[in-house]
Structure formats: C-alpha cells, structure tokens
Amino acid sequence: MNHSEEKELSILEKIHKSKDSIKQRDLAKITGLSLGMTNTILKRLVEKGLITIKKVNNRNIVYAVSPLGIEEISAKSYNFFKRTIKNVVVYKEAIGRIIKEIKEKGYKKIFLAGKSDIDFIVEHMCSKNQMQYSSGETPNQEEQGIFIIYSESINKDSVLQRNSSGSGNKREKNNYYLKDIIV
Question: pTM value?
C-alpha cells in the first residue's frame, strides 16, 4: 500500500468509526494532513464511490462511508494484516539466525537497548535458544557475556560516534542493529 492509499484508508476508517459527523478540519488534524490534501482525498473517495457527502447547510457537510467503502476498508485491512504477519515471520527467522550465531560465539545474555516494535520477537527467540534476555534504555557496560542489540528506535550513527569517541559501549563488535534487518 503506497502513502496515498494509506491516507485514504486512514480517512475512510476515521469517517467510519466516528459516531457523530466529522468535519474536514478534524479529519485533517487526526490524519496529520493539510486541509487542502484532506479535501483532495475526500473528493477522490467520493469519485471512487467509497464515501457519500450530504450537505446539511452552507457550513456543514456529513460524510458517510458507502458499502463499497466498507468493503475497501476490509480488503485493505486484511492485506495489511497479511503483510504484517509475513514481516513477523521474516523478522523471526532473521533474528533467530542472529541469536543462534551470538550463542555460538559464547554469549549468555542479550540486551535489547531502546524501545522496539518487535521486542516480543527478540524475547521469544532468546527463550527458544536458551539465552537470557533483558531490555531497557542502557545496558550495564561492565556486565560480561552480554551482547547488545540496538532497537530500531536507536540512532545507529550516534551509537557509532559515541563508541569511536571512547565513551559509551567499548564492545563495538558485540552490537547488532535491528535496523539492519527491518525493511
């Protein structure tokens, strides 16, 4: 799904979920789009037959998702779900290989630094490979036998810069970045 389709789906879902009529300005604010872009997307959704517009008066317009729009939400949500599951499987396999390699190098514990959307996969694969797992913002730098995996929320360049300046983690070779596998 491209960026434009994501925004269309987001607006469709917001209209569908709103209990009361929702204003164009509110849709723009909720989706993070400009008012002009929101207007353009709404027109496109009307042209596609995914929403209907009813003018209440000169100042108020009511948007409603058509049956075709509901089908579109379902289809795109299902496709998004399928892609998400496929990505989880790909990440699980890649992280599993990495953790197996780390274990073979003699490490006993993996520390996931930073917040991650896929921390549950790292934790699961550690458990599956009989590795200790912990997470947080910063690992204990003095702890032995620990391998650090930096989450996708950590800026790789700042970690490398910190390491090269002599402060921070001195075990640069004992690090891995989830950004290297997340597409």
Answer: 0.65
